[in-house]
Write a structure and sequence with these properties.
Length: 479
């Protein structure tokens, strides 16, 4: 039985149309969502701006804490159904979707702790004649209306990262989830209201087309724009933002890993498998390019291939599934074409290399694909890991840094000097040592560099972005 979700915009009674949502594994209809046109988007923006302009009725900090605590309780009570829904609509296996829900709950608690511990600062005065008899300090206030546009690959946790900090910061927020995975978002927003969020403080909508979405994002009423998705769309939208709108962009990369000659391959293997094939490789910091010392490169490639062959591919709602579908059949077509291009260039396909169905692709390990191939040049965003032999560390770092993307990277080594060299010289916002590139906890900074993004994600950092620090200067002869 499918469920229908109406627009969550106070004052809207109709809809511009209906979006059908299909399970990525079997393409079965699992839900429908109402869509908004420009007039409805303008109403949502006006609603949000009216709330922000009414400073006397801003949500007090204790009220925000109460809502976030209650929401965390409600998410915990619904954890299994939320995990199953996320697996069904997004294709991430149930075992991993359960972890996503656990992270969502943790994220709400991180918002609570951030709100409780973030404070203004005192600005030094009485240091010269101009600052004599003065006291200066700051406090934080909400930045204004937040618009959050999200991606499909973590249909609940990404929404937590964009919406919950806005609630914590005291900002009215309008959220547009990915059209492939809106159901988890709508369920979360419903829980916010069940937890006591007053009407209008979180509005949820799907736009009828990209023109309406652009109209939403580029409105002069938007104070902060949070975007998670493709670089092409994100940078385009940034170029059209109204003057004064701040933003944070989170795009993808082609995460590099360096494995040195002395690395513990037994320990590295399961981490590389997880980092490469988690959610069928549809993660912005997925393990993609693994540079391995030539003396052990083929050995590691063979071990990765053997482990990849043991992964269970199938229905993401089943307990036994390790790797689910790609989000759309067209993505399977694209990954297949990229792998075939590499194969036609003479690359060794160590494992996989073929589609299993309209929606699934085998976990694939390629050995030493040429640098000109798409699998070496662009973000694969699919279940493909490439292994490249190298002869010295400088060569590995140069090749790792050769692309216009920079996000997270990693090095597997027992040598502290090699680890420090990788940390110092890899183009990345984070370098993991003896851990895969997709490692993340929700309170750490998470930032794409170069073409991979703008600003810093992670709940405390997003919370900071969604507030301003306002200073007061007091003059008194008694100071």
């Amino acid at each position: 039985m499918t469920q229908h979700f109406d627009l969550i915009i106070p004052g809207v009674e109709a809809a511009a149309g209906t979006l059908s949502v299909y399970a990525p594994y079997d393409r079965q209809l699992i839900g429908t969502v109402a869509t908004a046109d420009e007039e409805m988007v303008d109403l949502a923006l006006t609603n949000a701006q009216s709330l922000f302009n009414d400073q006397a009725n801003w949500l007090a900090a204790d009220k925000r804490l109460e809502i976030l605590r209650k929401t965390a309780e409600l998410v915990s009570e619904s954890a299994e159904s939320l995990a199953l829904e996320a697996a069904r609509e997004g294709g991430k296996p149930l075992i991993d979707s359960r972890i996503e829900v656990a992270r969502a709950i943790e994220g709400l608690h991180v918002c609570i702790e951030t709100l409780k511990t973030t404070a203004g600062t005192e600005i030094p005065m009485n240091l010269n004649a101009a600052s004599a008899n003065k006291l200066a300090f700051t406090r934080h206030e909400p930045i204004g209306v937040v618009v959050a546009v999200s991606a499909f690959n973590h249909p609940l946790n990404l929404i937590i990262h964009q919406v919950a900090p806005a609630i914590a910061a005291g900002c009215p927020v309008i959220v547009k989830p990915a059209e492939d995975t809106p159901l988890s978002c709508y369920r979360f927003v419903q829980l916010l209201y069940q937890a006591g969020l007053p009407s209008g403080w979180c509005q949820c909508l799907m736009t009828k087309d990209t023109a309406v979405a652009t109209h939403l994002v580029t409105s002069p009423l938007v104070s902060f724009f949070s975007f998670i998705g493709s670089a092409r769309v994100g940078w385009m939208l940034r170029s059209k933002l109204a003057p004064g709108t701040r933003c944070a962009l989170e795009h993808g990369g082609a995460a590099p890993v360096i494995v040195t000659e002395d690395a513990d391959l037994e320990a590295a293997l399961p981490k590389l498998i997880k980092g490469g094939f988690y959610h069928a490789g549809q993660v912005c910091v997925s393990v993609q390019r693994v540079f391995v010392h030539a003396s052990i490169a083929e050995t590691l490639a063979n071990q990765l291939a053997a482990a990849a062959d043991q992964l269970c591919i199938g229905d993401p709602t089943l307990e036994a599934t390790d790797v689910g579908p790609l989000i759309r059949p067209g993505e399977v077509d694209r990954v297949e074409a990229w792998v075939n291009e590499a194969g036609n260039s003479g690359v060794q396909v160590k494992s996989g290399g073929n589609r299993l169905s309209e929606t699934t692709f085998q976990p694939t390990v390629l050995f030493d694909p040429p640098d000109h191939c798409k699998v070496s040049q662009q973000e694969i965003f699919g279940p493909v890991v490439c292994v490249y032999p190298y002869n010295n560390m400088d060569e590995a770092i140069k090749r790792a840094n050769a692309l216009p993307f920079a996000f997270q990277a990693s090095v597997f080594t027992k040598n502290i000097d090699a680890a420090m060299k990788a940390y110092s010289q890899l183009n990345a916002s984070a370098v993991m040592v003896n851990e895969h590139t997709a490692f993340r906890v929700d309170w750490m900074p998470f930032a794409g560099l170069r073409q991979s993004g703008l600003g810093v994600g992670g709940i405390p950092h997003t919370f900071k972005d969604m507030q301003i620090e306002k200073m007061m200067v007091i003059h008194s002869d008694e100071i």
